[in-house]
Amino acid sequence: MRAVMGGKGRYWAGVLAAGAICGTAPDRPLPPATAQSREVLLATTTSTRDAGLLDTLLPIFERRTGYRAKVIAVGSGQALELGRRGDADVVLAHAPDAERLLVDS
Predict the structure, then answer these.
(1) Comparing C-alpha atoms, which of 42, 51, 46, 43 is closest to residue 17?
(2) 43 in a domain, yes or no?
(3) Residue 7 falls within a domain, yes or no?
(4) Does residue 82 belong to any structural domain of this protein?
(5) Domain range for residue 77?
(6) CATH number at residue 97
(7) Which of 38, 43, 80, 83 gives 20 to 30 Å between its CA and that of 101?
């Protein structure tokens, strides 16, 4: 499989990611358990933020779920550490081996 390196490949990778995320979101907003739980903390990488992917995905997520996403954009290692400590609800990074270790822990 060929690595995706910018240009059209990056565009289609973003389209596929958006489709996967939006396709799995519920059809109607989920009621939050409490007023405090209306915010989801997303730890992600600066490159994900800078690519504009979140600008496309987050409005759809927020509209469909009723939750607001607060984004912390840092390096992959820092994003994964936030997740490991429980300081983030969701981690979106690009370090597959480190992500597997986090999920398995």
Answers:
(1) 51
(2) yes
(3) no
(4) yes
(5) 37-105
(6) 3.40.190.10
(7) 38
**74 in Cβ contact with 81 (< 8 Å):** no
pLDDT band at 1 (very low <50, low <70, confident <90, very high): very low
* pLDDT the model gives residue 35: 56
Q: Which two tokens stand for residue 51?
A: 């690519």
Average pLDDT over residues 40-64: 94
**91 and 80 Cβ atoms separated by less than 8 Å:** yes
In the chain, the number of structural domains is: 1
3-state SS track over the chain: CCCCCCHHHHHHHHHHHHHHHHHHCCCCCCCCCCHHHHEEEEEEEHHHHHCCHHHHHHHHHHHHHCCEEEEEEECHHHHHHHHHHCCCCEEECCCHHHHHHHHHC
